[in-house]
Amino acid sequence: MTARLERINLAPVKGLRLQHPSLVELTRVGVESNRRFYLVSGGRLYSGKDHGPLVSIGATFERGRLTLAFPGGEQLGGEVALGERLETDFWGRAVSGRVVVGPWSAALSEYSGVAVQLVQSEQAGSATDISVGTMLGRASCERLGEELGAVIDPRRFRMLLELGGLEAHAEDEWRGRRVRIGEAVVVAGGPVPRCVVTTQDPDTGAVTLDTLRGIRSYRGLRAGRWIDFGVYFDVEQPGRVRLGDRVEPL
Questions:
Q1: Beta carbons of 207 and 148 less than 8 angstroms apart
Q2: d(Cα 135, Cα 112) in Å, to the nearest integer?
Q3: What tens digit of pLDDT does each residue of 11-58 get?
Q4: Is the pLDDT confidence value at 1 over 80?
Q5: What is the pLDDT of residue 121?
Q6: C-beta separation of 163 from 247 below 8 A
Q7: Helix, strand, coil: what percent of the chain each, to 5?
Q8: How far is residue 157's CA from residue 201's CA, in Å, rounded to a whole number?
Q9: CATH 2.40.33.20 domain span(s) along the chain
Q10: Was domain 4-20+131-249 assigned CATH 2.102.10.10?
């Protein structure tokens, strides 16, 4: 079977609606616009785990201009201006950022029902998780669907790259291997531990499916704790990747 890139998932603001470009530039820090912004509330990271309906808000960030599109039709757009500097705990790792000045934080606070601040990371790629990218084979979602008796939308997992043409969980076997994707070469990493966001509908944020129970039922727990699905990667050789590109372990 020939593995190919089936979908690209980006979120300029962590937790908000995914974008699906047909082409991206993979750099040493991943896709530079991906998760460039994030939300903070009460001094801690605030995301879809806290308020699932954040996924209903669209966001674009191009040439220094940020636009948010709310489900009611309201849009906010303008050049990004930065204020105070702060550090946020990203799962035990401190990420430096600066608060975005303007109407965005107030609008996001009203939508969420809690006071939040919109923050831009000081370095592109620093507001990702463990590694700069993630990837998942669609066959793995099909296998989970068999377990749950449901169709699994891969967008639930918010992975940077979705791959077709693989056996279920074949990506798990690539750990430490170099993988060519289009013009880029990445190095596959360890498993991605999953959270409650995967139980939420990727369009509305409502909890609709117990994906965590399903994964655990046939994959078990890693170290008695982690529910894994998909893998991380880092970029060894930067380059463009496009929908339909071959995915070849080297």
A1: no
A2: 29
A3: 999 999 999 999 999 999 999 999 999 999 999 999 999 999 999 999
A4: no
A5: 96
A6: yes
A7: 20, 40, 40
A8: 10
A9: 4-20+131-249
A10: no
Q: Pull the structure tokens for residue 55.
A: 């996924």
Within 8 A by CB and 6+ apart from 146, the residues are none
Are the C-beta atoms of residues 241 and 182 closer than 8 Å to each other? yes
Distances in Å between the alpha carbon of 42 and those of 39, 45, 83, 89, 106? 10, 8, 17, 12, 14
47: tokens are 């995301």
pTM: 0.95
What span, in angstroms and rounded, lies between the C-alpha atoms of 193 and 172? 13
Question: Letter for the amino acid at 186?
Answer: V
pLDDT score at 116? 98
Pick from 119, 122, 121, 117: which is nearest to 107 by CA? 117
- 128, pLDDT greater than 90: no
